[in-house]
Structure formats: C-alpha cells, structure tokens
Amino acid sequence: MADLFGAPVLPGLAQAGDVVTRNEEAELIAQIDAAGLAPFRFQGWTGKRRTASFGWSYDFDNGRFAPAMPIPEWLLTVRTRAASFAGLTAEDLVQALLIRYDQGAGIGWHRDRPVFEHVVGISLGAPAVLRFRRRRAGGFDRTSIDLAPRSIYHLSGDARHGWEHGIAEMAETRWSITFRSLSDKGRSAAVR
Predict the structure, then answer these.
(1) Whole-angstrom Cα distance, residue 128 to residue 178?
(2) CATH number, span 13-190
(3) 62: phi then psi, degrees, rounded to nearest 5
(4) What does DSSP assign to residue 49?
(5) Would you kindly state where each structural domain of the chain is located, as residue ranges?
(6) How far apart are CA 38 and CA 50, in angstroms?
C-alpha cells in the first residue's frame, strides 16, 4: 500500500490484491479447515484462533523452535506466488502458518519471532485491518492497511523489525496463510 505520492505506508511493507482466484480461495479454505488446526497456545493461555505450522514451529509455551511436518503439497503453488511477490525463492519460505480466526478471534500486538525474517501473508475469507504501531516518546506512531480477501502482504526491513503489528477481533471468519523465511538466528538454531 502506498500514499498519494507512491511511497509505501511503511518502509518494508508491500501489498497487492488478488494473489489467488475466488475458486482457489475456496479450495485453500477447505484445505486449511482440514489441516488439523488446534487452538493457539501462549504461556498456558489458549487463544480463540486455531493454527497449524509446517516446516518449522515455534512453541510459545516453552520457547522452543523446532522442525515441523513438511509444508503440504497443496500449499506449494501459493508459496511460489508468495515468494515471487516478495522477491524470494520458494525454497526461502521454509515455514507456513495456517490460521482460522473465528468470530471474536484476533491477534494482539507482536513482532514475529527473531528466528524468522521475511513474513509473507495471504488473507482469505473476511476482510481485516492489519494495524501497526511503533513506540515513541509520549506514545505510539500508528498506521494500518486493509487486508482484502485474496490479498497478499510482505513485511521486511523496518515494517518487520521496527513496528509491531496485530489484527483486531474479527466479526466474521477469516483464514490466513503466513509464509516465513529463516533469519540468521533461525538458520543457526536450525543446524544445532
């Protein structure tokens, strides 16, 4: 998303629409729902959103970063599109996180774990607002972008590392596919 003069809303944030067709969206939603989603867990707390990780997982109860089941074949075509959009190779995107946000589910302010670098998300189902904030003296700088169904976004650089992001509670069901690459820290942890 860009301002009136073509500059990105945030350096390191890119966005585009219609990365998948309506038919592909319906197929992806069905596959996500069949993927064995489990309630998100964070330090003993159970969230309203349901998730499944492939390639690599990060356990928020114990802080463990570990290999997970391989990215399923049905995600490979959309992973290739996501990588192309982000200027990466498909092989760079080694982690896939599937999320279903049922009514009332959202995601609080956060930065993705430092074991990951590029974050490429695909939004399915209901539209959402991806909010950003950055602490400054006396408060926060804030901005947001609309995530239309079938759209894609890429977080890198300052948008990835300098800002927190989150999604407000959903009024309707939304699904997302988030692909991530490993950071230098993640690659080091992966070879241990």
Answers:
(1) 15
(2) 2.60.120.590
(3) -125, 5
(4) E
(5) 13-190
(6) 5
